[in-house]
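We close this part of the discussion by returning to an individual protein. The sequence in question and its structure tokens are set out directly beneath this paragraph:
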Amino acid sequence: MGNTEAYIGSVSLEWLDSRVRLASKLPLFREKFDSETDNIILDSETINEIQQRPLDCSRQAPLTLYLATRKSHKFPAVLVVISPSLVDNSKAKEWNQNGEANQSATDFLPLDSVGKLGLLELSLEVAVFALDGQHRLTGIQGLMELIKTGRLSRYNKQKSIAAAITIDDLAETHQV
């Protein structure tokens, strides 16, 4: 990935649910966001920035059910971008006159002598966005909603609410 820092990490589903946002919420898309579909408006300005399919809300329920009904199954990794507030402030001291960062977007605390294993500092001020795995993220968010509230609204492709899934439904149909 050239000079781009990359890390592989592990977090809980609860952490993903509470901390990771959809890529469409990235500040660079703020002016081109459709709140009805939770997608970026595709036009001549954004088309070159988008490298993935639009979010399909109808996929949330099946992904949530996959996690809820299969005890030993999980999703593959979600690719995220770490975005501290300095990223969207071109006047921040962390940028040089060429528009390049003078420091990393995150702090890495090595725990081994080679600096390969460690901890990333991801304070609450640091925004985290899913770039690849947005549908998986919505499935995880659905699971957390189901656990917290006992129900999950189903959506069709137009983001209209269909029949809800309840914990009682899962107990009856999947013995969960």
Remarks:
- The chain has a mean pLDDT of 84.
- The chain is about 25% helix and 15% strand.
- The beta strands are 20-22, 33-34, 39-40, 79-83, 107-110, 118-121, 127-132, 151-152, 165-166.
